[in-house]
User: Fold this.
Amino acid sequence: MINRLWLFLILMAFVGFLSQLFTGHYQIVDDLVDSIFAMSKLSFDIALGLVGILSLWLGLLNLGEKAGIVQALGNLVAPLMRALLPEIPKNHPALGHMTLNMAANVMGLDNAATPLGLKAMESLQSLNSEKDKASRAQTLFLVLNSSSLTLFPVTIFMYRAQLGSLSPTDVFIPILLATSASSLAGLLLCCVVLRLKWLQPIVGLYIGAILGLLGLIVWNFSQLTPDQVRVQSALWGNGLLIFAIFGLILGAAWQKVALFEEFVAGAKEGFALAIKILPYLLAMLFAIGLLRASGVLDFMMDGIRWLFERLHYDSRFVEALPTAFMKPLSGSGARALMLEAMKVHGVDSFVGHLVAVIQGSTETTFYVLAVYFGSVGVTRAKAAIVCALAADLIGISVAIWVSYLFFGE
Assistant:
């Protein structure tokens, strides 16, 4: 499936290239060449940038494993995972790795979430009988990562504040609703596609608890001023990160783990892992770069605008679609398009609000696919791709709907 997806992206870019060429836009030749070299450099820069953060978190994670902290955290999700995925043995390290990764994602701690997610994928691969094909557990885990439920989108608040928004945090609740819809859709789609036994009381209990927590968070933050929302979001996200670091180290010290030696042993894996994912990352970014430079996304946006105008529907949302189209393909590209839309239309305009909600509604799916599956050599992942992209579509659709609800007038 990944092979066909990669070929599809290349063919789409080639069609866009030919259409530009035949209509006299000869600059497309230079644009595609520039894109090829830019994506090659970007893939290396990303892999190089991951070396330090991977080494740090894999070192800390090794301390947590030696101290039994990771296994203890795994007990938090063990009942749910045993109900959905009985193939994961009780007390397996993968449960703890998945718990830490999902906690980091929820807090918006991207730098911490990626190393923890790679470690979880590696642990799940040890249970996988078909090494080149994603297992049910790996598929579910990847889809939950790509939909990426995030409670504290601090970086989006920061960008809106820098651009002069009168209320930088007024997108908090719409983003929470959109990202919750994306994650819940991803979970339910996986349950259906993978034939997971999700109609069980324990699954309903977990989903109910999560929805209840989300409702409590929405209520709490709705009582705060914009400045208080921004401060508390940063405090919770960064504060929990610091507590996690000290907790892993002090917990390992309490269990009399050889701290320095075990940290270094875990950190050594970081460099090798960053180099391992580089070819997979390069292949995906190469295809995405060609697609972006070919003009295909602009053509799709023009077609959607034409259709909605003919149907006499409000087409203002189309101005935010470049960010929506780019979000599953490139995180940096989507961020650049979001900032451009905010500057052109106004950070507090409908489009300015909508691009912020779209940016926070889901994760960069193709990046997650390339990095997570590339780290363990998985090349067959049809169910993961279908469920992840469907969850993206639902998340973006809800983002548009709630933005009309909150900011449409």
Summary: The mean pLDDT is 82. Residues 345 and 352 are 6 Å apart (CA to CA).
